[in-house]
Amino acid sequence: MRAVPGPPRMSAQDRRQQLVDIGLDLLATRSIHELAMDEVAAEAGVSRTLVFHYFPSKGDYFAAVVSSAGARLMEAVPRDPDTDVQTRLRMMVTAFLKFVQRKRGAYVALVRGASGGDPKVLAVLDEVRSGHVIRWLDAAEWPARDELTQLAVRGWLGSLEEAALAATTSSVPREVVVELLVQGLLADLERAARLASGQEASAGGR
């Protein structure tokens, strides 16, 4: 009697992605630093030792999960180059609101409890946010990339996150929320540009 072959062995890349995907799924019910590596291993059907083969520490694993979550969020908010700025921003904000509505639990866990104080996770989270800043500046076709402008967008992203979470239980029509956020971003960019010009004028007069 011929032995029945078992399932094909996963490649290292596929196994690593499987473990990260499990972490993303578990984020729906807890913050990332509450994930237990034993639980991740059990979900994958592997030993805890194998998990640490791919991720030398909890921080490395958590950082990989956060990075993947940031990439998924980026994919969920497409940027259409063939539209005017305001239409493009409305489409992106709408997509963002829909994503948060679908993935509210995981999103709350990510933005409100992602780091757990771990420096590796903090570094990845900062990298994710920086990437999102540039993406929104590109979408707005805003040429400035100075520190003040990027700071303004980071502040707006915080408002976007909070509004998206609140909008899931709000009676305010989505299109009104979208317009509020789009106009808020454009106003913040204009304000940053004026302040930057004032700083340059002051520096030039010294």
Protein model, in words:
- It is a single chain.
- Residues 1-7 have low confidence and may be disordered.
- The protein is elongated.
- The protein contains nine helices and no strands.
- Helices cover 73% and strands 0% of the residues.
- With 206 residues, it is an all-alpha fold.
Oligomer: single chain
Question: Rg from C-alpha positions?
Answer: 21 Å
H and E order: HHHHHHHHH
Number of strands: 0
Arithmetic mean pLDDT = 85
List keywords for this structure.
single chain, about 210 residues, mainly alpha, elongated, disordered N terminus
Summarize the structure.
This protein has 206 residues and is mainly α. Helix content is 73%, strand content 0%. The N and C termini lie far apart (91 Å).
List the helices and strands and how they pair.
Layout: H1 12-26, H2 37-44, H3 48-54, H4 58-76, H5 85-102, H6 104-113, H7 119-139, H8 147-167, H9 174-204
